[in-house]
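Researcher: Going back to the complex we discussed earlier. I've cleaned up the inputs and rechecked each line, so this should be the final set. Can you rerun the prediction on the complete assembly and write out the structure?
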Amino acid sequence: MAVDYAALKKGGFMRQKQKNHFSLRLAVVGGNLTVKNLRKIADVAEKYGDGHVHLTSRQSVEIPFIKLDQVDEVKEELAKGECKPGVCGPRVRTITACQGSQICPSGNIDSYDIAKKLDERYFARELPHKFKFGVTGCQNNCLKAEENDVGIKGAAKVSWNASACIMCGVCAKACRTDAITIADGKIELTEDKCNYCGRCAKACPTDAWETQTGYLVSFGGLFGNRIYKGEELLPVITSEETLFRVTDAAIQFFDDNAKPSERFRYTIERVGIDKFKETIKEAYNG
Amino acid sequence: MAELDFNIDERVDITDVVCPMTFVKAKVAMEELEIGQVLAVTMNDGEPVQNVPRSFKEEGQQILKLIDNENGTYDLIVKKVEE
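Model: Rerun complete. Updated structure for the full complex:
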C-alpha cells in the first residue's frame, strides 16, 4: 500500500531524508511543556527515536527517527504523557508566545493565555497555506510578532492621574519615544508619539499612570524565502472580544480569498490592502 | 499632586559602571542604609536613568525624585522602605 505522506504530514510526521523515518512534531502552545510531557517525550525519543529531540524555531518539539511502522504506537505512547502530535502543511500552525505578564516584569498581557485561546479557536484549521500566529507581551518583542501572518503585541494605553503624581520625573526619562513632557507642574502625554510600551507606568513610583491593557496586531508577516514585516493596520485594541473579532476576520479573509499555496501577505497584496483594511476595520468597530 | 520633601543621608555614584552593574552598585549602597533613610544615586543619562528607577520600584523602595544635573547625569532620590 502506498504511504499517504500528506496524511502523515497533517498529523505532524515529517518525512526525513532517511527512508521510512519521520520526525514527529508535537503540539505545543506558547512554548510551555509540563514535566509530565517532558518525561514522556524523553521516554519516546529513547525508545522509538535515536535518543535526541529537536527544538524547532517556533517553540515546538520534534522527535526524529520515528519508524514508519511504529507511528501509531508512538502516538498512543505519547498520549499517555498528555502529548499530542502537531501539524505541518496548509493549516494553522503552532501558536507561539513569550512568557507574558504572568512571569515577565515587562509583560503587558498574559501572552500564554491569549495563545491558548488562539489555539482553541484556530489550531490545525485547514487553509489555503500555512498560517502562523505569534503573541508577544510588550514592545521588547521577544516573540517577534511581525514575522507572523498575524502577530499580537501586548500594549498599555496610559493616562495620567494628577492626584497620585509626586512630579518625580521618572516617567519622562523612562519613555523611549519622548511622548512625556513635564512643564509648569503638569505632565503632558503626546499620544501620537506613544508606542504603548507601558514603561512609564511600570517605572512610576506612585502608580500615577493608569493603564488599560491593549493589543497591537500586525498582519502579513513572512520570515522564510522572502521576508516581510507584518504591518499594524489598526489602532490599539483594548478588549479581548475585539481582538478575537479582528483575528476571526483576518483568518476568514485569508480562507475566502487566498489561492492554494499563497501566503497571507501575497493574498493581501493581490486582493488589495484597502479591501483588507476595510474588512478588519469593520471587525474592529464591531 | 504633591512633591515630596527629603533629606539625603547617603550618596552613591554609579556613572563609572554599566548595566547590569549599575543597579547592583546602587543596591549594595542601599543595603548599608537603615529603613527610612534616603539615598541619592548619581547615574548617566540613557539606559541607567531609563531602568534603575524601575528596578528600585520593583525592589519595593520608594522613589522621591529624579533630578536633572544638566551635565548628562541625574540624581535619583530613593527612600529605603524595605530590607
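Model: Worth noting: The radius of gyration of chain A is 22 Å.
Researcher: Good, that matches what I expected from the previous run.
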